[in-house]
Amino acid sequence: MIEFRHVSKTYLGSSQPVVNDLSFEVLEGEICVLVGPSGCGKTTSMRMVNRLIEPSEGEILINGEPNTEMSGTRLRRGIGYAIQQIGLFPHRTIADNIATVPQLLEWDKDRITARVDELLELVGLDPDQYRDRYPAELSGGQQQRVGVARALAADPPIMLMDEPFGAVDPINRHRLQDEFLRIQGEIKKTIVFVTHDIDEAIKMGDKIAILKEGGILAQYDTPENILAAPNSEFVSSFVGADRVLKMLSLLRVSDAELDPPNGNGDLPRLRERMTLRDALSELIGSGVERGVVVSDTEDGVRGTLSIETIRRLSSRAEAGQRGE
Amino acid sequence: MGGPPLVALQELGPRLFDWGWVSNNLTDEIIPALQGHIFLSFVSVAIALLISLPTGIFVSRYRKAYPPVTFVTGLLFSIPSLAAFALLVSVPGIGLGWQPVVIALVAYSLLVLIRNVVAGIDSVPEETKDAARGMGLTPRQILFKVELPLALPIIVAGVRIATVTIIGIATIGAYVGGGGLGDLIFTGISRNFPTRVIVGAVLATLLAVLADLLLLWVERLLRPWARARRA
Which of A3, A41, A2 is nearest to A19 (CA)? Predict the structure, then answer.
């Protein structure tokens, strides 16, 4: 869907490239997260997809066609764009902000109005309450939702998102991430997602491209594989010493083989949708070896889960990924 | 008449203001002078704005041109107004009348207007422009749909300052035959008749205050999003 082919970028008057011979492919319907320390060229790489920056070498193919086939402005109207600073137009209402690209594409008025309401619903803002407000009247989290809605407005198959949840507090960020993953489950966009936060990358990415300084691709793989088998000193230190815990955060209680319930009501309750990381934390925190797994609505007991099972699962996951 | 006219005015004391003269000359002298003044000020600001908008936009794009433009307009701004009027009268093709006045008033407004156009465009947040580019607006659309609307309140603030300044300076234009409220003031001085001076001065002040309030209202009107923030 999006293919980087030996893409490099060197700014005029600089001898060091900011992006160095980048090649990878983002598959249709996947979120590809570009992650790395500052100065690794992740934002530059993203901005080359819609040609806000032109590469010095190499090319980027979209659906097999070089992205230079059409004018930059036409290309950009077909690619959703959401950034950390959001960049809502302060002088336009929320509805007008969301309608920006549909207006450029000259949709008729009724279609735009309907689409704006649909998108406000999608990002969890009541259209009647918000459509006629100005951005300054919204909280940071609400503005980011509008930013995402605006990027989705013309239903582009591709989205570029540069730390789209970066400007809000951690609690709101987690909520926005969860909501976006739910939305992505429905809309299945092909997304290039930039972040400096490895946890966000692991959570959001179907694939992760870890870039290091000088714009060199250090590793490109699924979050599971990167956590199980970092291919270099740089990647394992970037991923962090808690990579086993991070791996557990990708698995849910429902993924584990449960022991039969043994009827002990004093054990802590673990919901099926909890991550194994949270379950482990719960067990260690309660000072017990096992917990009772209940359904998400807490109305049925599914079995018990022990710390030992979690440990076995994590080493098996690691061995399994390495074996590939 | 003997002695400097201003000294003569001081000696008049009790007959400082003559209401009878005001009612007798309202329609054939005072109102035409006021209209002339509004004409001079309005035309000057309008022409100055027509020059400043494109210049300001250009200068905000080609930054290197900004210092020389500020230098030249700053120089124009610093010429004493009486001297400017007198010099312009002596330029062939201009002569006495409203033309030298308008030219000088335009020259005086350029500095503040161009500065505010540039400041207004500069005030547009970088991320707003980036988002606009990223969504596929053309440079022209970014200018007209994003930058200028957001710059407008600051531009109008510049127009306010320029207008108030111009309404004041325009009174001196009567010295070179430009008409307006300055006519009342100058003839009042030369004929030892303070009522004219007072009427001219009070009307010029009122006009400036009213223009200021009107433009303040326009400025607010152009910024509904800021009003919403306060609400």
Answer: A41
